[in-house]
Amino acid sequence: MGNKKPKNTDKLLEKAEKLLEKGNYQAAKKEFEKANKALKSDDIAAKIILCDRGIEQEKAKDLIKKGKKSIGKKMLKEALRCFREAYEITGEDWLKEKIETLKMEVSDKDLLDNAEEAESRKDYQKAADLFKQAHENLKDNTLLLRMAHCLVPAGRHREALDIYASFSSLNGRDLYDYGFASAQTGRFYDCLQAWDKISKTGDQFRDQKKMARDAMAASMSADTDIPLESLYEQCCYLESHGYGETMSPFFEYVKRLLIKKLWKEERYPEIHELIYPWGDDVTVSQLRFYTKLYFRMAFDSPEYLDYLLMFWLTGLYNREIFSKTKTEGIEPERLFDEFVQTGENLIRRYMDSGVKDADNIFFAWSAQKALMSRIDKLMTALNEDPMLICTPQFAFRFGLAERICQIIEKNQDRFETASDYLETGAYYCSFGRGLVHLDKKEYATAFETIKTIEGGYHPEFESYCRNRIHFEYGLHCIETKTTPPHGIFEAAADLFDQAPEMETMFIDKAINAYEDEYIKYFETALKEIVDHHPSPGVKNALSYLMTVSGIKQSNKALLNLRMLETVLMKALKLNPENELAKTTLEKVKKDKEMDELVNALDRFKFNKAAKIAAETENEEVAEMFFEFLTEQYNQLEQADIEPEKRILMLNELGKWGSRADHAHPLLQDIHESLTRYQQG
Amino acid sequence: MNPYKILNIDQNATKRDIMAAAARAMKDRNFSGKDVAIAQKKLMNPVSKAIHDFLYVIEIDTSPVPPPESAESGQTLDFEYLGFPDSDQ
């Protein structure tokens, strides 16, 4: 190669090489071609071929990039073209695989496009089949729903329902379709349950729902494979949608069938759910059933003991119910007692096993047993409706309390005592609810309950009730060492008039109080009571507690003798026969005089001391004074002092002594000594 | 435990029926021997039986009441397919 290259071709080649290095094949090729025109070199021709290859690779890269973008834009056919062209250039395996996948996707897309196109033409049969094929290819469950959506208008309801059954929840149009298919296959309740979830309402849709409900109501039958629980649920649905009026007997029938089934299976709480809340009225057969049901429930769980309390005695005392229970050779009275005892044993069982509140239920049971006996006696004598022989809770719940109250009020003479009459009436008056709480030892609840009740119908019973609740709540406060509400025991004044046994009970508790705190509370309570009810019992009890309290406080140096004396005087004013107060007062007086005497002697006020000794009724006080004088006399006798001074002091001793007791033997001794010393 | 269920008898069972049922229940071993014995004892005592009759047996009137209109089961409705209903329809 002896030819000398022109200078500009070198530059061209240099530029071309640089461009090639940078991968700018197109520009590099151009420069190489320019240079080769002049040089006609094989090397340059090879470089041009290299550039061509680079250009092809770039093109393939662009195609792949474009293909990927097309997939993103769901332009599968365009993507397929790009990948095919790229493959022709590069021949890479992965591109071949990608092309195969895309081919299938394009085919599925076509399938979907065809399905959608068929659906838009309302060719639902075809659309459903195409969606089915697409689902088989793509395994996409949303395609199943699209298939079902076409099956419904295509009239293939059962197939659609089979598909919907595989979904746990449906939304929007699927709910409508499911409901529609259900209605078309006679499953009206399923239809309505689905359609009720659709919030949108149009007139046509509302009409369809109404038609579905009508059809459901018309197709109701107990003779069906549907479980009773579901059938009853359907009845409830229709009842809540206004079909109760026409279908009530059937609904009740289904309910009875269900109750019978549940009873057989001993599913008592579920029966309770069916019948609760009870109606406003109750029939004998309902009462019979409730009596049994709530015993069974209370037997299984103590949480139903309140219901046992309400129904058991009511059911047993109802002649129409219990008269059907007969046993040959057993006296009805004995059988009755055994039944009552069965209820009591159940409560005791829970008490024995330490169930909370069982004790309180038992207290209420005991009180209501006595009450029921009285009310039974009254109503039976008057030949009244047996339903009126009931517990207060039952009476309040079923609107019988007022009638019972009126009967009691008109028949006071049939009660053994005024207290029996008042207590019985009180249970059924409007405040009686509080009394029921009281029986269960729910004192605060009882107290709060009557605050919210408006009375005025049976003042006598209401007054007894309020007084009793206030009194027992106050007593409970004392027993739990809580300060009772101020003035609460004023109620006891009337109560003690109405029920003297309450007074006896309270006084008994008061005088047996032993702890300081109890004594203080009882004393305060009695002070509240005594102003309104100054009975001897109350006065005596208060007198006694004041004395005990005063003594205890004095022993603790909380009261001085003067204050104690005042307390005792007051106590004696209430009960002059209070022996404890009397003896204590005597002792207090003596101690007080002793104190005064010692005080006077300490301060050399011998005239005052002599006066105390002279006036005291207590020998010990006078004796103490003379002991002092005797000691002074003895000391004087032994002292070595001048005769005149000794005589003077003996005269003084004699003067003080004679002021206290001129006949005291010490005065004789003093006189003899004086005579002896005066004689020299 | 419900003695009637254990012995598989109803309240009309006589003493002889109760004894036979207890023997059968012992043999069947669906309940423990103790439960069967207690159930038998409860029902052999006339007072206890009266209480259990009262407690376990209910009288519920289940004589059939036909629904106001009867329709063939599986009836269908002839109403128009609305697709997804719109509120303005």
Tag the structure with descriptive keywords.
heterodimer, A: 680 residues, mainly alpha, Serine Threonine Protein Phosphatase 5, Tetratricopeptide repeat, B: 89 residues, Helix Hairpins, 4 helices, 47% helix
Structure commentary:
The complex is a heterodimer of chains A (680) and B (89). Chain A is mainly alpha-helical and 680 residues long. Chain A folds into five domains: 1-91, Serine Threonine Protein Phosphatase 5, Tetratricopeptide repeat, CATH 1.25.40; 281-399, no CATH class; 401-524, no CATH class; 534-603; 604-680, no CATH class. Chain A has 34 helices and no strands. The longest helix of chain A has 37 residues, at 228-264. Chain B has a domain at 3-56: Helix Hairpins. Chain B is 47% helix and 0% strand. At the A-B interface, helix 9, helix 11, helix 12, helix 14 and helix 17 of A face helix 4 of B.
Order of helices and strands of chain B: HHHH
Query: Looking at the structure, what is the overall shape of chain B?
Result: elongated
**Which range does the strand content of chain B fall in?**
under 5%
Number of domains of chain A: 5
Number of helical segments of chain B? 4
* N-C termini distance of chain A: 188 Å
Q: Spans of chain A of 5+ residues with little confidence (pLDDT < 50)? A: none
What is the makeup of the main sheet of chain A? none
Per DSSP E runs of 2 or more residues, the count of β-strands of chain A stands at 0
For the record, the CATH architecture of one domain in chain B stands as Orthogonal Bundle
Quick one: overall form of chain A?
elongated
Quick gist of this model?
Chain A is mostly helical and 680 residues long. Chain A has helices at residues 7-21, 25-39, 42-72, 76-90, 93-120, 124-138, 141-151, 157-165, 172-184, 188-195, 203-219, 228-264, 268-275, 284-300, 305-317, 319-322, 332-352, 358-381, 392-397, 401-410, 418-428, 432-439, 443-451, 459-479, 490-498, 500-511, 516-532, 536-555, 561-574, 579-602, 606-615, 619-638, 643-660, 665-679. Chain B is mainly α.
